[in-house]
Amino acid sequence: MPCGAARRVLVVGGGVAGLSAALELAERGYQVTLKEAAAVLGGRLHTRDERLRTGTFRVEHGLHMWFWQYYNFFDIIRRLGRERCFRPLVEVYYEFKAYRPEVVRSVGPYPFNVVNVVRESSNLSLLDVAGARGALGDMTGYDHDLNHRRFDDETFEAWGRRTRVSRRFWDIVMAPVASVTLNDPARVSAAEMLLYMHLFFLGHPRAFRRSVATVDHGTALIDPWVARLRSLGATLEVSAPVAGLLLEAGRAVGEVGSPARHDAVVLASDVGGLHRILAGTLACDAASAAALAALRARLRRLAVAPAYHVLRGWFDRPILRRPVEAVIETPQHRPINLIAIFSMLEEQSAAWARERGGSVVELHLYNTPELSGLGADVVYESIRGQVEQLLPELRGARALDFSLGAFQNFTSLEVGQGKSRPTSDAAILAGIPNLALAGDWVHTRYPSALMERAVSTGREAANHILFADRVREVSLSTASKRGPGILPRFG
Hints:
The protein is α/β, with parallel strands linked by helices. Among the domains are: 8-44 and 218-302 and 418-468, FAD/NAD(P)-binding domain; 104-202. 36% of the residues lie in helices and 20% in strands. The protein contains 17 helices and 20 strands. The strands form five sheets. It has a seven-stranded mixed β-sheet with strand order 8-7-16-17-18-15-19. Strands 10-2-1-13-20 form a five-stranded parallel β-sheet. A hairpin with a 7-residue loop joins strand 7 (91-94) and strand 8. The longest helix has 19 residues, at 450-468.
């Protein structure tokens, strides 16, 4: 940082994006104050302590998986020395209603990894692939610079019909991708899904490989991340909502109602928080008012996905499955989109299951506004038939307790949202040179999504501040902007 200068930065939002920006700035000597509206840090990686009838447990927001191309997130994991808390999960297990179960593995190099998926499939043949050749052209020919311009005004389902994807190929390959986005699959943008397929499946021969935490996300990552920030002198506040920012002379100087002044601000809340903060932001002069109006206009179309629920249950029966079945994706069993057998994944749950002869199961229920306001017991009874169909071991089992997370904080992937996303420098372009944006709702000029986009845009936000202060910026590692084509073309 500039010689002899003490630079103060306010980071609004204590999720992955805010923590990412805070880490880069604090490591470079900035005085960072981070404020989070919730009672815990971590955003969608938060971990809460719950006292249940069966004991006290650390319960996450829900199972998350780290894909191979989460380059910047894995950099943070390495820097925090937490690699030992993660293990690979290289196969994906699917349960369907209309088809046989699938175990999907991607073994490179390209294109043999794709060919082998079809060759080893329980349901697909090369004829099914031939029937999807129109869609495969868009997938393997992915171009990040053109993707949203070409496909963001079209739903994924309409794109599938237009490219004449066969029903079997759609059900087994395409529909599962849309079902796990937490959005309404019928309204998801084709551009967003093509980005997902490029980033998570086709953008690199190893893109399909994933890792999962072997302990709760707080122990694995958020707690050491917070400890590192505090060791660097950062101030971290929870249950500290920011009502709005204060703009003076075209600059963000602090928050409404606080006398503290800052040299720069990173706005890293979720979309709902973003709109609340912008609505409460005060401009003290004409230049600030004009910049604020431009920024509000730029961000006003950003939306939030429908409500979703994550239900974890402790049962008095064990579940003994193959390791590949520790995570079961269930695209045809709505509202259940994914089952995670935590007693096969996480040390705390495994220890409880061994001691009690039971099992711990997490059910992901996406796009479920109809469940809002219901208690955990009622939610479970409404899906019990499907649970027991997917996990016959639980027929007649007694549920000892539940933990229910009800959320509506995920970024919308509906048609038109991709083209509405701002870049991390959108506020700077609007005329507020010391305000940077970060979050999975921010557009990146390279392929990214979910937690990796949050980390990457946090790093970008820090870089805008570093650049203005003539401090060396943080490097970014990114996935290829282009699909592999018919022949390998990775870069």
